[in-house]
Amino acid sequence: MRKLDLNMDYSYRVSTRMQRQGRPKIGVEEFMSVAERFGFSEGTLKRIHAAVGKEDLGGGPFLANYYCGLKESKVQAFERAAREILGVKYAIGVNSGTAALHSAFVAAGVGPGTEVLCPAIGFFATSAAVVVSKGVPVFCDVDQSLHMDPTKIESLITERTVAIAPTHVMGGVCNMGAIMKIARKHGLKVVEDCAQSCGGKYKGRFLGTFGDLSCFSISAYKIVGGGEGGLVLTDHKRLWERANQLAECGGLWRPERFAPPRYEGELFCGTNYRMSELEAAIDAVQLRKMPATVRRFNTVKTRILQRLGTYREITPQKLNDPDGEVGYNLRFYPETFELGARLVKALRESGIRCGPRGKNAPPDWHLYSYMFPVLLKTRATSDDCSFHCPRYHERGGAVHYARGDCPVADDLFDRLINVPLNQWLTASDCRAVAEAMNRVFARFCREDSAARPWR
Question: Superfamily assignment of 291-363+410-444 in CATH?
Fold first, then answer.
């Protein structure tokens, strides 16, 4: 056998120039798929395709927050917009409002043997995220604002309570001054749920800047968002790091991804709630539009409320801060279900969109007494450690749920009449809406200057 000459290059010489140019993994077809979701006409789509088809996309875009090759990813742009507009130090873009809640509750120390005070009215995701964090939700009744009643909070606090989760519902605003005072008195964390009121303010400060952490649903169903996304805010670096670790278990948020922990408790097993670049690209623009959107809604509601008369048989929703409300809904409580039905019928005949729940309304997971996965304390697994956790029982926990626990919420939620508002109504439109509502109210109710005002 011939002996190899170690000084000779035996490797094959292969040309590095490919004879056929490849295509990017993500290219024109994917771009057109996104364009189709915007609802462009067939003719417009053809013109877009003709234009972008001439572009050399190289290797194509990398649609993830990290390693995208950009100076600033779209997720980072979204987080920067949140910090700048809302005035906080830290922001985390995640893939849903529920992901934001789960991350925030874990960061706040919710776990086995702990309780969190949640409002009796507000979407089920808040209390569900407490359970997923292995804590136990305890429902607090509301007042006529439909928000957590500060006078009911202290009686629910136990040695197991670690946090309060005030929820700003349906464009409204909680009494954050009173809630924060109670929380600080008892050394409790506050996790603000701002999912339904992004852009609202209390006493001139944006919602989401009061609590230790705050959470937003940034989605197609909310004031801000195009699909499904979420946001966590905080001014506390350690809370930001804990929320990041839960939301981004891969460690990509850290200065050195795979490094040992920099301090005790920094690293723990989490999950992956990362926001996608496509979602963030929409939401970064949407968030910049938010202040103007909220101003339009609030102006419309203010114009209408200022023209409404006061009536003995109608109680307007209490507004904790009329000027800080987002204001995309106008709400009131008729004295009886029967009166409510007559008012709704007449309002609709007058061209006013409105909706009641009524006496025999179906279940709705915005009211605590219908949140069946919580009420039934259903076990996700046989070793579930929330309601059925030995540590919880050892600490004296024995929560029970039933309709009637929060009687004000039970009453108001079913009696409520909701009038959705359009941000684009002109001053003339608002005057016409108010006049139509007054005509209907005057037919069935007694005008009374001593009755509760609308603002």
Answer: Aspartate Aminotransferase, domain 1 (3.90.1150.10)
List pLDDT tens digits, range 205-249. 999 999 999 999 999 999 999 999 999 999 999 999 999 999 998
Question: What pLDDT, on the 0 to 100 scale, is given for residue 380?
Answer: 83
Task: State the pairing for strand pair 329-334/417-420.
Answer: antiparallel
| The one-letter amino acid at 70 | L
Burial-class residue 239 by CB neighbours within 10 Å (0-12, 13-18, 19+): buried
Residue type, 227: G
> Within the chain, what is the greatest distance between any pair of CA atoms?
113
3-state secondary structure of 313: coil
| pLDDT tens profile 292-335 | 999 999 999 999 999 999 999 999 999 999 999 999 999 999 99
Asked if 275 and 69 count as a contact pair (C-beta separation under 8 A), the reply is no
Q: Report whether 11 contacts 46 (CB < 8 A).
A: no
Residues 409 and 279 sit within 8 Å (Cβ to Cβ): no
Tell me 359's DSSP state.
T
Distance of alpha carbon 307 from its chain centroid, rounded?
32
Cβ atoms 337, 359 nearer than 8 A: yes
Rounded CA separation 3/13 (Å)? 22
Residue pair 401/375 in contact by the 8 Å Cβ criterion: yes
> What's the rounded Cα separation, in Å, for the pair 261 and 247?
17
Q: Give Cα separations from 340 to 113, 264, 327, 346, 418 (angstroms).
A: 44, 58, 22, 10, 11
- Can you read off the two tokens belonging to residue 151? 């006078």
∠ CA 380-383-389, rounded to 5°: 100
CATH topology for the 74-287+374-398 domain: Aspartate Aminotransferase; domain 2 (3.40.640)
Hey, is 119 helix, strand or coil? strand
Buried b / exposed e over 380-391, threshold 16 CB at 10 Å, is eeeeebbbebee
**Under the phi-then-psi rule, with left for phi > 0, alpha for psi from -120 to 50, and beta for the rest, what region is 122?**
left
Q: Is the dihedral of CA 440, 446, 447, 449 positive or negative?
A: negative
**288 and 136 in contact (C-beta within 8 Å)?**
no
Domain ranges of the chain: 23-61, 74-287+374-398, 291-363+410-444
